[in-house]
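Field log, afternoon session.

UNIT: design team B
ACTIVITY: writing a sequence onto a fixed backbone
BACKBONE:
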């Protein structure tokens, strides 16, 4: 498993959401693939910590960094950077002790927000500064669908999820390891995965982090597809760097981090926390620990290259104290998210967390409830970059086809919720109220007729017809309707245009890299 433990449609402009194609799709409950821009929220964030509470957490995090320390494993270069910056190295030769205020001071050079450029310039996204970007599930070695059940993922599954993300309007990002294609050699699969993102989508994407060399391959492939000058002068790749919680970073993650930071590409530094096992059982203790871990990781990117874009990431969950299994959709991780988001805003860097998380093995009521209890705090808390926004099943072990399109429906709703209340003249609807007056109805008034096509969010999954009509159409539950929908989407998929020369160069690069070393599956 990877991190977090390990055409025509593409060329439509952003402003065509209310066009005739979208209206026809809504009337027939067809899936509208017209892309939506990243969210610029118009609703306030929800905060759980007072000023005093924030100061307590910050002070505890500084104590952790200074007294307990954070291990830097198998990377003497990073240790040397920190020592030169004023940190101490423990007697074990790998535990970093960071004086109070040093990490925060180093982070002052990190940008408060940045744009991630895409192969299609219209798909660029802003990360930070009130924006929210949804990205797909990341990392599962298995897939699940109603037809086959659970099985190991293949490169064809990987391409399918890239295509589904490309066609999903509220999915602003192509993501990274949308599933782990186990039918391709471990040491070469990153080439096929990055190519899939670059060829079958033109949205922003994430790079490989499973080895420094694979990170370099990602940068090189991005230069081929987007142009070397574009990559050298912009953030074109986001990547996920997990802390090896509690309070450690390993050489693999640090190696990839150094490659991307040196190239000016964005690192999402994310402690991966299962509270009770990898952090204390309390919210305050967990937040202090993950904040300390994230500060050390984020500051490291600035030691590599001042001004490199970086994101404060968290993946926080709880565990069952009876079985030890991870749990999702519970209140405590939501509180961790809200508190961490406040800290990110105080530090002045973008924030990653949340998603549509669940422990359910199938797309059932448990999956729906737990995912809803994760995605709503994600939006309300002000998360800027959202991994696992769609497709997550089984605690992150499986990417679900049906779950993907069910979650996609929900993030579409989040897009509307983030837009807040329309207080324009049309939104106030006073002309409608005057026209209808007391005791009548609004169904036939001019305002309703002018607005009915886009008045309310129309779910692509929910069935709101009569019992008789639902029964006549096969008595399908939500999962079966989702099964039908993802198949229709893939059948209608059209690849976005790509420069033939760039595509040929990408394929030549991949062939050369694959020929240079024997296959390895471990």
């Amino acid at each position: 498993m990877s991190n977090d433990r390990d055409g025509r449609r593409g060329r439509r402009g952003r402003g065509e959401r209310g066009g005739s194609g979208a209206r026809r799709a809504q009337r027939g409950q067809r899936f509208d693939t017209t892309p939506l821009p990243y969210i610029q929220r118009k609703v306030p964030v929800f905060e759980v910590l007072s000023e005093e509470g924030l100061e307590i957490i910050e002070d505890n995090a500084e104590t952790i960094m200074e007294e307990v320390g954070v291990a830097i494993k198998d990377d003497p270069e990073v240790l040397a950077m920190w020592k030169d910056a004023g940190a101490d190295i423990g007697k074990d030769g790998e535990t970093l002790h960071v004086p109070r205020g040093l990490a925060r001071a180093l982070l002052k050079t990190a940008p408060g927000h940045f744009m991630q450029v895409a192969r299609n310039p219209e798909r660029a996204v802003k990360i930070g500064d009130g924006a929210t970007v949804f990205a797909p599930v990341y990392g599962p070695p298995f897939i699940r669908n109603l037809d086959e059940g659970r099985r190991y993922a293949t490169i064809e599954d990987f391409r399918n999820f890239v295509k589904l993300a490309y066609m999903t309007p509220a999915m602003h990002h192509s993501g990274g390891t949308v599933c782990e294609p186990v039918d391709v050699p471990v040491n070469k699969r990153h080439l096929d995965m990055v190519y899939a993102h670059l060829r079958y989508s033109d949205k922003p994407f994430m790079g490989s982090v499973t080895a420094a060399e694979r990170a370099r391959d990602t940068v090189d492939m991005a230069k081929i597809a987007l142009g070397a000058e574009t990559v050298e002068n912009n953030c074109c790749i986001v990547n996920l760097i997990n802390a090896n919680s509690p309070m450690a970073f390993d050489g693999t993650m640090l190696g990839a981090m150094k490659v991307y930071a040196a190239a000016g590409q964005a690192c999402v530094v994310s402690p991966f926390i299962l509270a009770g096992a990898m952090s204390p059982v309390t919210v305050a203790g967990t937040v202090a620990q993950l904040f300390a871990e994230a500060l050390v990781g984020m500051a490291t990117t600035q030691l590599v290259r001042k001004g490199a874009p970086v994101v404060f990431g968290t993946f926080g969950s709880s565990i069952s104290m009876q079985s030890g299994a991870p749990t999702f959709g519970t209140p405590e991780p939501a509180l961790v998210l809200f508190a961490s988001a406040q800290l990110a805003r105080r530090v002045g860097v973008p924030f990653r967390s949340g998603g549509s998380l669940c422990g359910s093995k199938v797309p059932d009521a448990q999956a729906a409830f737990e995912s809803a209890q994760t995605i709503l705090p994600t939006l309300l808390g002000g998360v800027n970059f959202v991994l696992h926004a769609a497709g997550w099943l089984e605690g992150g072990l499986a990417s679900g086809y049906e779950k993907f399109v069910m979650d996609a429906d929900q993030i579409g709703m989040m897009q509307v919720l983030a837009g807040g209340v329309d207080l324009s003249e049309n939104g106030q609807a006073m002309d409608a109220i005057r026209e209808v007056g007391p005791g009548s109805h609004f169904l036939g008034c001019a305002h309703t007729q002018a607005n009915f096509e886009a008045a309310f969010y129309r779910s692509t999954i929910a069935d709101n017809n009569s019992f008789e009509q639902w029964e006549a159409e096969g008595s399908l539950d939500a999962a079966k309707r989702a099964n039908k929908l993802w198949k229709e989407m893939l059948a209608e998929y059209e690849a976005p245009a790509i420069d033939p020369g760039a595509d040929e160069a990408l394929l030549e690069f991949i062939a050369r890299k694959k020929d240079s070393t024997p296959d390895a599956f471990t």
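LOG NOTE: Residues 5-29 have pLDDT under 50 and may be disordered.
NEXT ACTIVITY: expression trials, pending approval
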